[in-house]
Amino acid sequence: MMDAKLLICIIEKDEKLDEVLEAFIEEGLTGATIVDVRGMFEYLADEIPLFAGFKSLIEDANPSNKMIMSIRKDEDELQRAMDVIEEVCGDFSKPNTGIMFSLDISSVRGLKLH
Amino acid sequence: MYTKTIFVLVVVLAYAGVFLVFKKKYLSLFGGFEYLFVGFLISFLTLDTAPLKPLLYPFLGWIGLLIGLQLRFSYLKGLPGNFYLKVVLYILLLVAAASTALYFLGFEESAVIVGIALSSVCYKTAAHFMPSREKTNRFALFFISFLPFISILLLFGFYSATSDFTHLLLTLSASVAFSILLRMTLAILDDRGSVLLQLIGFIILISETCGALSISPIVVSFFVGIYITNFSHWKDFIFTTVYRDEKPLYTLYLALLGMVAGVAVGKQGAIEIVSIIIAVVLLKFAAFKLPPFGLERYRWYLFLAPGGFSIAVVTDYWLKSGAQEEDTRFSAFLISIIVLQFTSIFLGKRKQGRR
C-alpha cells in the first residue's frame, strides 16, 4: 500500500494562485497541476452579457476558480501543503475561501515519489 | 423631494424587476428597453429632472470601463489578422453610409455619432439566438463583440476632429492621469472591500470630471479600462466587480435616461424615426450580402438591433452637446432603437418557434 496522497484544492481568490505556488516552492513542495474550474452556482447563473461579450467568448463564460491538483508522497507532506495553502488564502472554514481534500493513491506512473 | 422619492422608487424597481426581463433562457421582446418605457412614463409627471442629469455620467463611465477592461492585449493574439480587417472594414463602411444618409436627412453633426451608434449590434440579442457553444456561431459573435472597441475609437476620433486641440489634450491627459492614479492606488490595497470602494469612487470621479470638462466619459474610462486590464494585478477582480451588476445597473441607467430625456417627438421626429429604421434595415441587410465580411450564412435580422451600447454612445453626445434641438432628435433615436430591438427579437423568436 502506498502512502501517497492526491491533494485537491479549489481556491476562490484566483489572484492568490501565484502566491500559493511560490509558497509551495519555498517549502520544497514541487509539482502541481492547475485547472480552471467553475462552481455549480456560477455555471447555473451564467447569462449572456450585455456589454462583456468579448471577454465571455475569450474565457468562455464567467471568471473561473482555480483547482490545484498535487500528489504528495505521504501524510506529513500533505499536511504541510494544506498549511501552506491556508497561510496564503486564509482559514478554509470561512466562507468563500475555497475547499480542499485529499484522496489515497493506489498506484502512480510517471512520477518519482522519493 | 418628490423627484428624489420617484428616483429611489426607480432604483428599487430596476433592481427588483431585472430578473423579469433577463433570465438565462428567456429574453423579453424589448430586451431590457421596457425600462426606457418606465422612464418615459415617469417623465410625463411634473418632475424637475434636471438635477438627475449628472447621474447619467457615471453610467457612461461604467459602460466605457467595462468595455475597456475586456481589451487585454494577450487576447488579441488569438484572433486571425483578417478578422480585424473585416470588422474595421464593416464598421467604417456602415458608419460612412449611415452618416451620409442621416446627414442628408438633416442630422448635420450628429449624423456621424448616430452612424457610429447604429453600426453596433446588440450582443445579447444575437447571442441569445446563436449559442456561443456552437462553433459555427463563434465568428459572428466575436465580430459583434469586437465592434464597440472600434466604435469608441471612432467616437474619440470624431470628437477630436470636430473640437479644438484643448479637447484632445484634455481627453488624453485625463485618460493617462486617471489610469496611473487608479493603478497606483490599487497597488497599495490588499483586500477586495477596499478595491471595491475605490473602484466605485473612481468611476464617479472619472465620469463627473469628464462631465465638468465636457469630454467623453465613455472614451476616457475606456482608455482607463485598457490600461488597468493590461497592467494591474487586480484586473480580474475589477472586471468581475464591474461586470457583476451589469443588468441591474443597465436597467437603472435606462429608466433614469427615460426619466431625464423624456419623449418629445413631433412630426419631424416621426420622419426621423422612419428614416433611421429604413436606413438601418437597408444598410445592415446590404452589409450581410457583401462577401468580404463573411456574414452571409447568419440571419441578418439578428444583427439589426444596435442595443444598449448605441444608446450610451448617443447619450454621451447628447449630454455633451446640450443643444435644445438635439432633444427631439435624441427621442427619435431612442424610439428607433426600441423598434429595431423589438423587430430583431421578435423575428428571432418567431424563427425559433417554427423549429
Could you give the order of strands across the largest sheet of chain A?
2-3-1-4
What helical percentage do the residues of chain A reach? Answer: 25-40%
List the secondary-structure elements of chain B in sequence, H or E.
HEEHHHHHHHHHHHHHHH
User: What share of the residues of chain A does DSSP label as strand, in percent?
Assistant: 15-25%
What is the helix content of chain B? over 70%
Specify Rg of chain A, calculated over alpha carbons.
16 Å
Distance between the termini of chain A: 15 Å
- As laid out across the biggest beta sheet of chain B, the strand order is 1-2
What is the CA-atom radius of gyration of chain B, in angstroms? 20 Å
For the secondary structure, the number of strands of chain A is 4
**Cα separation of the termini of chain B:** 52 Å
Largest sheet of chain A: 4 strands, antiparallel
Mean pLDDT of chain B: 87
Outline type of chain A? elongated
Largest sheet of chain B: 2 strands, antiparallel
User: What share of residues are in beta strands of chain B?
Assistant: under 5%
Order of helices and strands of chain A: EHEHHEHE
Mass-distribution shape of chain B: globular
Describe the structure.
The complex is a heterodimer of chains A (114) and B (355). Chain A is of the alpha+beta class. Chain A is 32% helix and 24% strand. Chain A contains four helices and four strands, in the order E-H-E-H-H-E-H-E. Chain A has helices at residues 17-26, 40-45, 53-58, 75-89; strands at 5-11, 33-37, 65-72, 98-104. A four-stranded antiparallel sheet of chain A has the order 2-3-1-4, covered by helices on one side. In chain A, helix 1 (17-26) packs across helix 4 (75-89). Chain A is elongated and about 50 Å long. The mean pLDDT of chain A is 85. By secondary structure, chain B is an all-alpha fold. Helices cover 77% and strands 1% of the residues of chain B. In chain B, helix 5 (81-107) packs antiparallel against helix 14 and helix 9 (165-187) packs parallel to helix 11. Chain B is globular and about 55 Å long. At the A-B interface, helix 3 of A face strand 1, helix 3, helix 7, helix 8 and helix 12 of B.
